[in-house]
Amino acid sequence: MRRTPRLAAAAALTALMTGLAAPAAIAASTPTWGWSVSPGTVAPGGQVTLSAHGCPVPTVTVSSGVFDTVTLNEGRPAKARVDWDAKPGAQYTVTFKCQKQTGTVELTIASNRPVHPVHPVGPVNTGLGGGTSGMNAAELTGGALLLTAAVGTVVLRRRRADGRV
Question: I need a labelling partner for 156 at 20 to 30 A (CA). Which of 41, 77, 107, 142 fits?
Fold first, then answer.
């Protein structure tokens, strides 16, 4: 019967020591600095703001498979442009590195793709600069009539300004 109290006391003492040591072990592995990506969901080609605070060194390196590596200096945030070919609906890991510690956050790519900027291919139809598609008799006649009316108006105004009618 004496063994049971001793075993119970030893088990209680072990549990107490383990309970006291666990917070110290957790605190030693937890980074003392913070990081964030805003917004957490972005469309392909959009921009995100990267922030880190509390890092003891002046620079934090931020990397991801969806944008170029960015260096944050002196705790100031920086912007990164998400690649246009990022897969809609996918999540990409963004890694922040401060000295030997790293922190990660997930960045979600929006599933609705924005319209890409339009870049013309080939000649642009802008008039007589090589982009005409042919002569139209109605347009030529209308242009000639407008030109004649303009010239006639200028001639009549000059005559009136000279006193001639």
Answer: 142
